[in-house]
Specification:
heterodimer; A: about 170 residues; alpha+beta; Arc Repressor Mutant, subunit A; 2 domains; 3-stranded antiparallel β-sheet; two-stranded antiparallel ribbon; B: mainly alpha; 3 helices
């Protein structure tokens, strides 16, 4: 197996659910090269993919489809914010989410519908007819959140590579 | 405390140097490990040069400990420390110079 392919596999194993652009950027690989190696890795087995809202996320084996979708969504900033808010305080209203996350109501609706489609959350309504969101499997969602949160050393390396890339390679 | 260091520092100074050395070792070792993981990810010459420069910074702390503990004599200490300054400068300058053609493992 080529060195690049090994690096890609290692990166996916330590960052389950990483999406294509992020993978190519983190490893400093050109798009075409990343596509080629990912195709080879998928054909060789041991690599799962999940397509969520037009983005392909890569996983090592061992995650079921629900877990894959949840992890993929946890890797997106706004959706992650909605999930974290719903873990901290169950059943937040869409209006509160928009205020807390400082995004438009329509943005919240869009992400909530993604969460509902993925089976990660469901909508419910209070007595005033306001919509709230409820996580379908909060305990498992919390476990997956812990699993995909980058550790402090990971974040340090990410920032170091960004620094070197920006200062020396751009 | 450090009999061999007694001829050039007092006890209080030796303790201060030791604290600084421990902090320097922790800081440079963390940086070096970060560089090493970065190099493992990228495998480019620039990352190799940067990581080597960070590794030299760690070795400076090791030499410092050697001197405090009386293993590395002062003239050798100065020679190595200033020599490593030159090496770090060369590595970083070469990294800057070679960025025109970053080599990537294919």
């Amino acid at each position: 197996m080529s060195e690049v392919r090994r690096a890609i596999r290692r990166h996916i194993e330590s960052n389950p659910g990483v999406h294509f652009n992020e993978l190519a950027r983190n490893l400093g690989i050109a798009t075409g090269q990343a596509q080629y190696h990912l195709r080879r890795l998928r054909r060789a087995g041991g690599l799962d993919t999940a397509k969520v809202r037009d983005r392909t996320h890569y996983f090592p084996e061992g995650y079921d489809p629900w877990e894959q979708r949840t992890i993929a969504l946890l890797r997106r900033e706004t959706v992650r914010g909605i999930i974290v808010a719903a873990l901290e305080e169950p059943e937040p209203s869409a209006a509160d989410l928009a205020t807390d996350l400082d995004v438009a109501r329509s943005t919240v609706s869009w992400h909530v519908s993604t969460l509902v489609d993925a089976g990660v959350a469901e909508k419910c309504y209070d007595e005033h007819g306001r919509s709230h969101i409820r996580l379908t499997r909060p305990d498992e969602t919390r476990r997956l959140l812990d699993e995909v949160s980058p550790s402090a050393p990971d974040r340090l390396v990410d920032r170091f590579t960004r620094l070197v890339d920006d200062a020396l390679l751009e | 405390m450090f009999p061999s260091a007694a001829d050039w520092v007092s006890g209080a100074e030796a303790a201060a140097i030791l604290v600084v050395l421990v902090l320097a070792t922790l800081g440079t070792a963390t940086l070096f490990l970060t560089g090493l993981v970065g190099y493992r990810r990228r495998r480019t010459r620039v990352y190799l040069l940067m990581t080597a420069a960070l590794g030299i910074l760690v070795s400076r702390s090791v030499i410092g400990f050697g001197t405090v503990l009386g293993i590395v004599p002062m003239p050798v200490h100065h020679l190595i420390e200033h020599g490593s300054d030159f090496a770090v400068a060369t590595l970083v300058l070469y990294a800057l110079y070679s960025t025109g053609t970053p080599s990537r493992a294919g």
